[in-house]
């Protein structure tokens, strides 16, 4: 690259920092020159990390676009329901976009973004980061090469891990689907997308089942209280104790916006548990996201897939089984095992993100930073073909998610119309 791609980050939370950390590691690739973030602590930290000039720091996304275009690209990592408006404005002003998934909470908004991106000839890269993880790239390559013959069916499993579920989808930002996005999109559009991408055939129809079974008021243990800090009689034995999770084990603390001075962390964490949703009883939230969700999907050429998202596991990551006419494939994102029916031979692979230093330490099996790498190359060369998750490619799995949620609520099979 002759010079780094310049970008403005809108939303300096967890995902904004994932791509920001790529810029910090590879400043000759990506230079973040602006930030919009309403939480002062996050805005200050992000500006300091990237040496952002005071005039390029904004409280809201609207403020960014009051200025004439002053960067190559915009990174949109706001909450799900705040993707659409800044994305449409950025496209209208000629920015290329790195857009965190899901694209937007409604089918109409997703199609609007696609339409404007095409009209203005702009690059919109959707953060379907699993497409860039070497593990899934190798899986797709082997299938395309005929390693297991014709694909017949796929079983894909996403174990969320019980504490992650409680943190993000019971207490956290995505606890209510009406205020954000249904969990099938907020969490599992990665999975619907990777199934579709690996099979590489159009989806036709989908049926879904699932519900919120456990994290409900009627399941609250006797002696429990509104908050873990209110003298709950079962807090010490509860697997979802906020005191144990955040205060004692110091897990998933980025959402609490702790000060730089670590000596203050303890008192601040405890205060947050007394005043925010992260300290509330998991059985007494306003949550409505299903804690188990299964779908059956029909693809072209008689290929079928089943997908299961499960909250109640002690582990996380993805598990996939692919059944083909001449072999099968089993993997857990660490190891991929291919068995050839014709020869009886077994091939074990451990795909890793080792082609560029540091990528293997980024999230989603290296996919986070490998996506960022491909995005800056695509913007620099104005060549969207360098990306595998442009909005043209990524919208189908969103439609699968919208139809899955409709199917779940209506208890009926739904057709998927990509070109509607």
From TrEMBL:
PANTHER family: BILIVERDIN REDUCTASE A, BINDING ROSSMANN FOLD OXIDOREDUCTASE, PUTATIVE (AFU_ORTHOLOGUE AFUA_4G00560)-RELATED. It comes from the Bacteria. Transmembrane segments: none annotated. Residues 10-127 form the Gfo/Idh/MocA-like oxidoreductase N-terminal domain. GO terms for molecular function: nucleotide binding. Pfam families: GFO_IDH_MocA (PF01408), GFO_IDH_MocA_C (PF02894). SUPFAM superfamilies: Glyceraldehyde-3-phosphate dehydrogenase-like, C-terminal domain, NAD(P)-binding Rossmann-fold domains. This is Oxidoreductase. Residues 140-413 form the Gfo/Idh/MocA-like oxidoreductase C-terminal domain. The lineage of its organism: Bacteria, Pseudomonadati, Bacteroidota, Cytophagia, Cytophagales.
């Amino acid at each position: 690259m002759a010079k780094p791609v310049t970008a403005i980050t809108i939303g300096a939370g967890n995902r904004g920092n994932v791509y920001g950390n790529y810029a910090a590691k590879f400043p000759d690739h990506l230079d973040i020159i602006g930030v919009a973030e309403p939480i002062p602590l996050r805005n200050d930290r992000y500006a300091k990390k990237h040496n952002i000039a005071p005039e390029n720091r904004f409280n809201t996304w609207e403020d960014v676009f009051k200025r004439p275009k002053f960067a190559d690209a915009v990174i949109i990592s706001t909450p799900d329901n705040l993707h659409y408006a800044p994305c449409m404005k950025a496209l209208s002003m000629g920015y290329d976009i790195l857009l965190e998934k899901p694209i937007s909470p409604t089918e109409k908004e997703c199609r609007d973004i696609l339409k404007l991106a095409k009209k203005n000839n702009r690059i919109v890269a959707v953060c379907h980061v699993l497409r860039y993880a070497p593990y899934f790239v190798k899986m797709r390559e082997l299938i395309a090469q005929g390693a297991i013959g014709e694909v017949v069916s796929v079983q894909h499993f996403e174990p969320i891990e019980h504490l992650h579920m409680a943190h993000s989808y019971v207490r956290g930002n995505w606890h209510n689907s009406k205020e954000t996005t249904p969990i099938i999109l907020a969490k599992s559009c990665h999975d619907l997308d990777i199934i579709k991408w690996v099979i590489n055939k159009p989806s036709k129809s989908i049926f879904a089942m699932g519900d919120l079974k456990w994290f409900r008021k009627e399941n609250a243990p006797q002696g429990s209280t509104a908050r873990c800090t209110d003298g709950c009689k079962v807090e010490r034995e509860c697997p979802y104790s906020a005191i144990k999770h955040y205060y004692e084990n110091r897990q998933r603390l980025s959402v609490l916006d702790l000060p730089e001075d670590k000596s203050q962390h303890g008192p601040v964490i405890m205060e947050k548990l007394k005043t925010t949703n992260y300290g509330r009883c998991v059985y007494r939230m306003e949550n409505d996201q299903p804690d188990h969700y299964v779908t059956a999907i029909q693809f072209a050429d008689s290929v079928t897939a089943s997908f299961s998202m499960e909250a109640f596991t002690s582990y996380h990551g993805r598990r996939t089984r692919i059944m083909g006419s001449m072999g099968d494939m089993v993997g857990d994102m660490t190891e991929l095992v291919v068995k050839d029916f014709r020869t009886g031979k077994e091939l074990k692979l451990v795909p890793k993100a080792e082609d560029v230093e540091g990528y293997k330490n980024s999230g989603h099996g290296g996919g986070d930073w490998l996506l960022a790498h491909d995005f800056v190359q695509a913007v620099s060369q104005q060549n969207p073909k360098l990306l595998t998750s442009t909005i043209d490619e990524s919208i189908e799995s969103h439609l699968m998610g919208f139809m899955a949620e409709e199917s779940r609520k209506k208890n009926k099979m739904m057709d998927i119309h990509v070109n509607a």
